[in-house]
Write a structure and sequence with these properties.
single chain; alpha/beta; 2 domains; 10 strands
Length: 348
């Protein structure tokens, strides 16, 4: 691990780290413009690193990116992380910065101008909190979504509008536990997590290429809790989560629900190995019984969209047990997952 993981005297107060892979120009431009509009009394004490996680066209050769970075009032640079995956990209961002506070923006985020100021106030006022996340997230769908699904989709994409600061010191997930969007950390609070990654204790790579697995955020947050740090969310941290049309389609959402369920269960067992004792393999006949019941309920409710979503999440949980216990998925189950999660021909 780089020396920049360890506490040190830094010329910076906050490091902005943006990890990206083949970003959408329209959406990424909104993020870069938002970063340029962030307020801070001393811009020279803010560093900004864009981690290019092997984009097909290097960001350093992408005109709109270099043009916007040249205008940036913060000290900014682009680095390349060849190892694919969000976890590897985030570690590269940590290693290539030195500030005691690190804020991660995804390439579909649009933080409001006060984000850095509020963040610094929170870390100063609450020295026992190691990780903060935004308590006010607005989802911006670039194309309209069906009204019957809109509220659910907003929840999936982490929309929230809290009225007060919340923090917690428990491994049981609560509304006070932040998700990955706009995640902000004390460098000190992730030392054990980074050591666990280095020692291969944690194996999840988080999003990698087209993969939608995303439990790495959970491990970052809960490892901090295990190390004695509280974690929290604040309505003073505000951002917009930009969602393009393809991410609202059933094919994408089935895959998302499946891979989140699959990775989340494994993430918890890696964090708390004692949980492995509770993991069991579901037999063929109980599985078939569950699927028959699901099919019957789908016919009664006449709601194919939500039935497909529920089934994908259930299949992710079932497959996770095989993964955790290092058992190979039966061929019949692999086929069923392929047909009900990854098949592209299903209508939205």
């Amino acid at each position: 691990m780089s020396q920049n993981i360890e506490p040190q005297v830094s010329a910076f107060d906050i490091a902005i780290v943006v990890c990206t892979y083949n970003p959408d120009e329209k959406i990424f431009t909104r993020l870069l413009k938002a970063i340029n509009q962030l307020h801070h009394d001393t811009p020279s004490r803010i560093e900004c690193v864009i981690v290019d996680n092997n984009s097909q066209k290097p960001l350093s050769e992408t005109g709109y990116v270099t043009k916007l970075l040249k205008r940036c009032k913060f000290q900014s640079k682009i680095i390349i992380e060849e190892k694919q995956g969000l976890t590897a990209a985030r570690i590269a961002g940590v290693q290539n910065t030195s500030a005691p506070i690190i804020v991660f923006f995804d390439d579909d985020n649009e933080p409001l101008p006060t984000y850095l100021e509020e963040l610094q106030n929170l870390f100063t006022k609450y020295p026992f909190v190691g990780i903060w996340g935004p308590g006010d997230i607005s989802v911006d769908f670039l194309e309209p979504v069906p009204k019957a699904r809109e509220a659910w989709m907003r929840g999936v994409f982490q929309e929230k509008h809290l009225s007060k600061i919340q923090y917690a010191l428990t491994t049981t997930w609560t509304p006070a536990h932040p998700f990955g969007t706009g995640l902000s950390i004390r460098r000190l609070s992730i030392r054990k997590y980074l050591e666990a990654i280095s020692n291969s204790q944690y194996s999840l790579s988080d999003r990698k290429g087209d993969s939608l697995a995303s439990a790495g955020d959970t491990q970052v947050v809960l490892q901090a809790v295990l190390d004695g740090w509280a974690v929290g969310v604040s309505p003073d941290l505000q951002l917009v989560h930009i969602i393009p049309a393809h991410r609202t389609k059933i094919a994408y959402l089935r895959k998302l629900m499946y891979e989140v369920a699959l990775s989340s269960k494994k993430a918890l067992v890696e964090l708390m190995p004692e949980e492995k004792q509770q993991v069991v393999i579901l037999g063929r006949f109980p599985f078939i019984k569950k699927i028959i019941r699901h099919t019957f309920n789908t016919i009664l409710r006449r709601n194919s969209f939500f039935s497909q979503i529920q089934l994908a999440s259930y299949l992710g949980n079932v497959a996770a047990s095989y993964l955790i216990l290092e058992k190979k998925l039966p061929k019949w189950m692999s086929y069923f997952i392929k047909k009900n999660v990854y098949q592209k021909s299903r209508k939205d």
